[in-house]
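pinging the channel bc i need a second pair of eyes. not urgent but kinda urgent?? the chain im working w is below, pasted from the shared doc
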Amino acid sequence: MPQLPDLLFPSADLSLAELCAARLDGELMAVDDGFTSVDQPLTLALRLQSVRSLLAGRVVLEGQSALWAHGFRSLPPTPHQGCTPSGTRRRAVGSARIVVREVVLPPGDIETHHGVRLTSMLRTAVDIARGADTFGEVQLGQLAELLAAASATPDDCLAQLTRSRNTPNRVRALGRLCEAFALAERNDRPGCGGASASADAVHVVHRVDAPHRIQHPVEMGGVAHLEDEPADRQSVA
């Protein structure tokens, strides 16, 4: 009897109803739109294989989808999140299962695994910190674990945030990243209070400097940075 592939999709041989029945019987589990044995480890390769068909051309998996692919979110987002480097020609996405945007994406922010491109752990962490309007304990824990897995430092995150003058939501991201670093420190050292660490990690003072600029003096990880956001923000990530 031929061995089944690691990931199964509905086909002429196995209908969606049969796959769903096997999942209800405890034989299979879902991986995005695919199915795999309950004994199969949920690896990066398996997650990426399940979304490969969505990533046409130069589309890169990003944001919550990259967080899931890297293994720090249990369920994939709906829809998936993808991007293409700005200035590149891309084909129209033919699926409602993914939303694709155009962003500033240096080559160093992209990793390729098993033929699929996705944002690096560091880039994903900064994107998550900048972008999510809903950010509670679950999201904070995911961010802390992602930063730890990436061996990222506050200086790494600050450098990532300040490469472009027009990066939106930098102050929001700095605050969330500092909370995540404080949480990671508490997890490494049980009983260590994280409130003072979080307060010491970032200090933000807002002031209006000119009619068209709002500047934010920021200190993160002992590194001073003057944040300069245009009043008319451009959509640059």
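so Residues 217 and 226 are 4 Å apart (CA to CA). and Residues 42-119 form one domain. — does that match what u expected or am i reading it wrong
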